[in-house]
Structure to design on (240 residues):
């Protein structure tokens, strides 16, 4: 199977161990819907809760961020636990995204709905593209993988430089910042196609049933990344 652009999916599928059951695309879709529902409920809860000035916003943000990172890493390296951790990961991410979205909405009123709508449009568009031209995944896989590694390296460099009071222009709302965000959104969107392809191939190769949760987890990681990058892009446009 070709290299997967989504590190969360690649790490786990390489460690999958057969248990006599078989993963299916339909089963993975059901898991994705379950995780999306949980994330949505947590999102709405945190969105409403953070309107209350008595709610400790920072504590909830730290807990949800920490929970997401810990569960995300554990699930990536131990795929078999995805059937237990994926739903909790979705809940933590829902709280985290709800709080982040609420913050952006307070800074740029009306920004959240367009970000959600654009994320859904990207999701639907990539599904249609993949259904019509499934071989597109093979043509873009290497480029997408290299781009993701490069983006991660740039973000890491930006974090290191921030300790010295240096801010890269990619974080600004100028031409460079907007251009970089457009590029990242494009790569995140392309990653969805790679995720679809990998889930399909894993089902065809007879991976174990529990990997449905892992496939759903990996796809959700990409969708969350895409949504936050679109939110960031729209914020740059609004600020500009």
């Amino acid at each position: 199977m070709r290299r997967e652009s989504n590190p969360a999916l690649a790490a786990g599928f390489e460690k999958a161990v057969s248990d006599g059951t078989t993963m299916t695309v339909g089963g993975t879709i059901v898991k994705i819907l379950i995780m999306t529902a949980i994330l949505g409920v947590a999102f709405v809860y945190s969105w409403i809760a953070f309107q209350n000035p008595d709610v400790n916003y920072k504590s909830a943000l730290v807990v949800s961020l920490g929970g997401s990172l810990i569960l995300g890493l554990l699930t990536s390296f131990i795929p078999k636990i995805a059937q237990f951790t994926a739903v909790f990961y979705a809940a933590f991410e829902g709280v985290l995204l709800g709080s982040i979205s609420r913050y952006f909405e307070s800074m740029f009123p009306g920004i959240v709905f367009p970000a959600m709508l654009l994320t859904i449009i990207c999701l639907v568009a990539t599904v249609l593209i993949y259904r019509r031209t499934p071989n597109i995944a093979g043509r873009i896989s290497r480029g997408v993988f290299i781009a993701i590694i490069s983006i991660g390296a740039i973000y890491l460099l930006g974090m290191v430089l921030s300790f010295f009071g240096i801010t890269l222009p990619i974080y600004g709302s100028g031409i460079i910042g907007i251009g970089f965000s457009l590029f990242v959104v494009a790569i995140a969107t392309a990653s969805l196609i790679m995720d679809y392809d990998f889930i399909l191939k894993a089902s065809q190769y007879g991976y174990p049933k529990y990997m449905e949760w892992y496939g759903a987890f990996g796809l959700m990681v990409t969708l969350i990344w895409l949504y936050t990058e679109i939110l960031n892009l729209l914020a740059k446009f609004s600020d500009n």
The two ends are 44 Å apart (CA to CA).
